[in-house]
Amino acid sequence: MERRFHFISGLPRSGSTLLAAILSQNPRFHAGMSGPMGGAFGTMLGELSGRNEYSVFVTDEQRRRMLKGMFDHYYGPEYGAEVVFDTNRVWCTRMHQLKELFPQGKVIACVRHVSWIIDSIEQLVRKNTFQPSSIFNYQTGGTVYSRAEGLANGEGMVGFAYNALKEAFYGHDTANLMLLRYETLVSNPAHAIAAVYDFIGETPCAHDFENISYQADEFDLRAGTPGLHTVRKKVEARERSSVLPPDVFRRFENDMFWLDPALNPRGVRVV
């Protein structure tokens, strides 16, 4: 079976797991939380580079076949899906390579008000008081300020993804890129999912937005962050107050470049 591959990327805590859970209701689709393919892709690229003395025997065509073969073999017959969505924040940094390997493949980048992303992670930290999180390398000290700083720097969970998103958004391969706002997904899921189907060129399927199912409890527990990939049964927007100090919240409130048409020179679709 010739599978079609698409990719879910973007910012953390912005609806990628929820999107995957909804899409998985379609029996023709497979989608899940972030998996190993992003890291494996980068490792293989490195091993096939000039740092390996035997790279002189490897052509670009061989590299292409080997990289594409990783997806074909990882998503073997046991998956039984015609369309596969692989999720990883690194895909926004691989737009050109993905275009070469999967010309028809699309990248759906989930985005959200950055202040609320920081807030969502801080909420998890406070909820899991006695379980240090892998997000902060299981460190038990720090303050909300140091945690926000660590998340937002270029190597942090949020900062890296944010910079990767900008690289994709302002790059040359934006024809295969769509940004899906968390706010749209939770407040109007029917519209959001219809836009995804239109973008990837698939026939729409009926989805039940009041009966979503997804489990990753074992992974979240091992990461010291129970609830990291929890998906509520019903898709709906929930109003609440931020747990962040006002100055921390304000620091990130103007970072949503995707909302300004003047900052979208290539006309990337934003839903």
TrEMBL record:
Gene3D superfamilies membership: P-loop containing nucleotide triphosphate hydrolases
InterPro entries: P-loop_NTPase
Top-level taxon: Bacteria
Pfam assignment, any one: Sulfotransfer_3
Protein's UniProt name: Sulfotransferase
